[in-house]
Design brief:
Blueprint (H helix, E strand, L loop, with lengths): L6 H23 L4 H14 L9 H24 L16 H21 L2 H11 L5 H8 L3 H19 L3
Length: about 170
């Protein structure tokens, strides 16, 4: 550890480094804020009692100046953040319509793929029941098959749809 430096040594250091700090801060933040930031850098150097114990106080001062700029930027970012009070009528939660539309389209696509993969008779019976809203009895009469056969084909169609819509 080095011996404590005198106030004359700090005064000489201040006089030699102050113009450099002013140039540095003018370049970074402009001429208005530069004197205050330069003063803050030297104040931090003295307050931390680092001047007496440093081999290279110029480097410490430069690092302090950078930290001051970082602190200033963070403070400005916080001040620029806008905060609004919550208004129940204006800020009410809304449905994620776009997400729902995408999911609905995915479901439609999976259903159509399942329909295309069905045997023709099963597909026809399924569509007659689901789209034309015919009863099993009406479908059986139109196609000339038994009611039991209609139930069989509907069960096969529904099983295929369920498999197509179940995540893997």
């Amino acid at each position: 550890m080095t011996a404590p430096r005198s106030s004359a040594a700090f005064d000489a250091f201040y006089r030699s480094e102050h113009p450099r700090m002013l140039r540095y801060f003018r370049k970074k933040v402009g001429p208005d804020a530069a004197p205050d930031l330069a003063q803050d850098a030297f104040t931090r150097l003295l307050r931390n009692q680092a001047f007496d114990s440093l081999d290279c106080p110029e480097a410490y001062l430069t690092r302090t100046a950078r930290n001051l700029l970082i602190d200033r930027a963070r403070r400005q970012a916080r001040q620029q953040a806008l905060c609004f009070e919550f208004d129940e009528e204006r800020d009410a939660a809304i449905c994620a319509e776009q997400t729902w539309q995408i999911e609905a389209e995915d479901l439609r696509r999976a259903c159509w793929q399942a329909l295309r993969a069905m045997p023709p008779r099963t597909r026809r019976i399924f569509l007659m029941h689901r789209l034309r809203h015919l009863t099993y009895k009406q479908i059986a009469e139109q196609l000339g098959i038994s009611n039991k056969a209609v139930k069989y084909h509907m069960a096969r169609a529904l099983a295929r749809c369920r498999r197509a819509l179940t995540p893997s």
